[in-house]
Design brief:
Length: about 675
């Protein structure tokens, strides 16, 4: 193939593949087989490799992602990204309707749409090409996640047809369909990673991933529902969205126009019933006035438009049988009763277990084994039991007897005054407590050893290689290579054998080694002193500066520290009274773990500006430039000398350098005054 032919064929393939993507992902109407599609893709990949000069910027081959983003650039929204007023009640909707009619009369239409349960995104198109994708952030500015959004195949990289404005924004919701969600959680379960609580959290986590090729594997989707531009083809919402569908956007088929509020009520009751049959989650319905002119007349409150409202569905509830109760032991020894249920379909997935929280909840519900119970999904992975159907209670049922001994190590349980949970006090030898503590130690906010996870920790513990934090730092290649564990079959999974190969072992050792750089305040959080969470760990670390000072601090000295009360002080003292804990800390110290505040961190007052970079330019009314720079560092921010795409803020005084100002404008870097800067620290 010569150059000219290659150029034409690359263009042809790019368009053809994108059209097949649209037919498959937007319209669910593929016209060629997966095999034929793969062949087209293969041909394009090969041609682009041979003739890279002709590869198009919007090539579908880029949808597989690649490249790492360390930190997403902050971008100011051209139009603020508002949210919607919401309600759960029909009466509120009637009031909304009355307010609307009072303002604009009776001659208007409503548009009803599904309320997609995902993450809001704003997509900007310039000359028909995807230019930028920005998350909501604080509504004023959000993260530029374009590299990740490009991997979502239902989002057009280049628009079809004509009539679109030279520049416009279209907003919508990134969602994770239930199928993708289940697949990802299954995979995470197998590799021992934490599960996502629901598809919304999974979608939110996915679009912020640093590796876009991983995002590409997440099976995300995107529905668009709001257009913003001065030059749209129609002067109403519904008609513009229909047009956007022709340009290649995924606009829901279930958007309808209604003449009045009764039509809205019918739409709500239809979707309240049918939502469980959708392949993705919705959490309500959105109602909008269709005409832009009337929208303008209605205007906005400080937070949301007066021309739209969302009606949220009540959490779905099902009735099922409670078969038995298991008692789980957490990392702190806290016991959680978990109900085993007769499997039942709820909000798109099968539920088999639900939490019963503690003995008080069991008593308050008055629940008995064999009862028919109401189950609801909250924000957590595990659903909860909200009530019982007493009319269906079996005649011979007996009240639940709460356990008295630990189900794992048989130690008698304790229950302290004013605490709702029972505890197993056998901290050092109770297996789930040891594993739980290790899992906490390696987690992202603690030592951040990503190459280990729940499953791998279990393997190390069950093989007798790791019993405490310090053992992690004695791991060697020889101890790890070839290590095996058989994960037993469950109802829907086959038995699986995992064994550590060279790459895994190298990654584990690298992760452990890197954790030696983790700062003292996080190490203090990692070692899992009861009641010492992330925030308290920081407070203790900055106040006492090193572990020895904390270990020898008296009760009175401890409660001197902001936010530290009797309970935490006692817990800290108890922790260091335990010789075993002291021994482990000594071993960790010998391995090079950080047990004191670094010189830089010691002057830190807060983390309000953590991770943000600033350029300070000009002269100021209330502070010197150096004072502002010091304040930035004292609050966790970073000073840089010139504006780049990585800069978050330009703090601009009088006579700000014109080059800096121009560059900040060009790169969409937020420009703030000294007052706005002071405001950030409040
Ligand atoms: S319209 C100014 N339409 O729900 C109005 N929002 O609670 C812009 N959402 O911020 C929003 N489905 O993230 C609109 N069909 C829909 C929606 C929808 C889901 C989300 C969106 C919004 C939030 C409001």
């Amino acid at each position: 193939m010569n150059q000219k032919e290659a150029k034409i064929r690359i263009q042809e393939l790019t368009e053809k593949i994108e059209e097949h993507n649209r037919l498959y992902y937007n319209l669910a109407k593929p016209v060629i087989s997966d095999y034929e599609f793969d062949m087209l893709m293969k041909e394009l990949i090969e041609l682009e490799k041979e003739f890279p000069e002709y590869a198009q910027s919007d090539s579908p081959t880029h949808r597989v992602g690649g490249g790492i983003t360390k930190e997403f650039k902050q971008v100011a929204h051209k139009y603020p990204m508002l949210s919607l007023g919401n309600t759960y009640s029909e009466d509120d909707l009637k009031d909304f309707d009355e307010r609307v009619k009072k303002a604009i009369g009776n001659d208007f239409e409503y548009v009803c749409e599904l309320k997609f349960d995902g993450v809001a995104i704003g997509l900007t198109y310039k000359n028909g090409k995807l230019f930028q994708a920005v998350t909501r952030g604080d509504g004023e500015s959000g993260d530029d996640v374009t590299v990740n959004i490009r991997t979502i195949k239902s989002i057009p990289l280049k628009l079809k047809g004509d009539g679109f404005p030279a520049e416009f924004e279209i907003r919508g919701e990134i969602i994770m369909p239930r199928k993708s969600f289940e697949k990802i959680n299954d995979e995470r379960e197998e590799t021992g990673e934490l599960l996502f609580a629901n598809p919304r959290n999974a979608a939110a986590g996915s679009i912020k991933m640093q590796d876009s090729s991983e995002v590409a594997k997440r099976g995300l989707d995107c529905f668009l529902y709001h257009m913003l531009s001065e030059n749209l083809p129609f002067d109403s919402h519904y008609e513009n969205l229909r047009k956007a569908r022709e340009w290649g956007f995924k606009v829901s088929d279930y958007m309808v126009k209604c003449k009045d509020i009764n039509g809205v009520f019918s739409y709500i009751s239809l979707w309240n019933e049918k939502r469980k049959d959708l392949p993705f989650d919705i959490d309500g319905v959105v109602i909008k006035v269709n005409s832009y002119k009337l929208q303008e007349q209605l205007g906005f409150t400080a937070k949301s438009p007066r021309w739209a409202i969302s009606y949220k569905f009540k959490a779905e509830e099902v009735l099922t049988k409670l078969i038995s109760i298991d008692f789980q032991v957490g990392r702190t020894g806290a016991i959680t009763p978990v109900a085993n249920l007769e499997p039942v379909q709820l909000a798109g997935s099968v539920v088999r277990r639900a939490t019963l929280h503690n003995a008080d909840v069991i008593e308050k519900l008055g629940v008995r084994t064999g009862d028919m119970v109401y189950v609801e999904k909250g924000g957590d992975v595990i659903p909860k039991i909200t009530g019982i159907e007493i009319s269906k209670r079996p005649a011979n049922s007996v009240p639940v007897k709460y356990i008295e001994k630990c189900p794992e190590c048989n130690t008698p349980l304790v229950r302290k005054e004013n605490e709702s949970n029972h505890y197993c006090p056998n901290e050092e030898n109770c297996p789930p407590q040891i594993k739980g503590k290790l899992e906490h130690f390696i987690c992202r906010k603690a030592m951040n050893i990503e190459s280990l996870g729940e499953g791998k920790i279990e393997m190390l513990y069950d093989n007798g290689i790791v019993n405490n934090f310090a053992d992690l730092y004695d791991l060697t290649y020889d101890k790890l290579i070839g290590l095996e564990k058989v994960f037993k079959a469950t109802e829907n999974k086959k038995e699986k054998k995992l064994s550590f190969k060279e790459k895994t072992v190298e990654n584990i050792l690298k992760g452990v080694e890197n954790s030696k750089k983790v700062t003292f305040e996080r190490v203090l959080y990692a070692i899992g002193i009861r009641y010492v969470g992330e925030n308290i760990a920081k407070k203790l670390a900055f106040y006492f500066k090193n572990i020895d000072n904390i270990a020898k601090a008296t009760f009175d000295e401890l409660i001197e520290v902001e936010e530290i009360g009797d309970k935490i002080a006692e817990s800290v003292i108890n922790y260091f009274r335990n010789k075993n804990n002291v021994k482990i800390i000594e071993r960790l110290r010998n391995k090079g773990i950080q047990f004191e505040i670094t010189a830089n961190a010691s002057k830190i007052k807060s983390d309000k500006l953590q991770g943000k970079s600033f350029v300070v330019s000009g002269t100021f009314k209330n502070f010197s430039r150096d004072e502002i720079k010091n304040t930035i560092e004292e609050n966790g921010g970073k000073n840089v000398s010139s504006v780049s795409s990585k800069t978050d803020y330009l703090v601009s005084g009088e006579n700000t350098g014109p080059e800096k100002y121009k560059k900040a404008k060009e790169l969409n870097v937020k420009i703030i005054s000294e007052e706005e800067f002071s405001e950030m620290l409040k």
